[in-house]
Design brief:
By secondary structure, the chain is mainly α. It has two helices and no strands. The longest helix is centred in the N-terminal third of the chain and has 20 residues, at 12-31.
Length: 67
């Protein structure tokens, strides 16, 4: 998810959906007694996303649900 070679910037809805998917998969793994890999949000080009202020909240929600 992010700025692609074609300069396609994902919408807020796409990013929110992606975070929800990752959170669901990781929470499911924890409930099944499995561990999750460490993940990092690489934010180069973040200034190209017009709604960048919601990303820290999505990240915090993902970390809280899967820690």
């Amino acid at each position: 998810m992010g700025v692609t070679l074609t300069n396609t910037v994902p919408s807020m809805a796409q990013i929110t959906s992606y975070f929800s998917y990752v959170q669901s998969v990781m929470a499911g793994r924890l409930q099944a007694g499995k561990s999750n890999a460490e993940i990092v949000w690489f934010n180069v080009g973040l200034n190209n996303i017009s709604n960048e202020t919601y990303l820290p909240g999505l990240w915090a929600s993902l970390v809280a649900a899967t820690s």
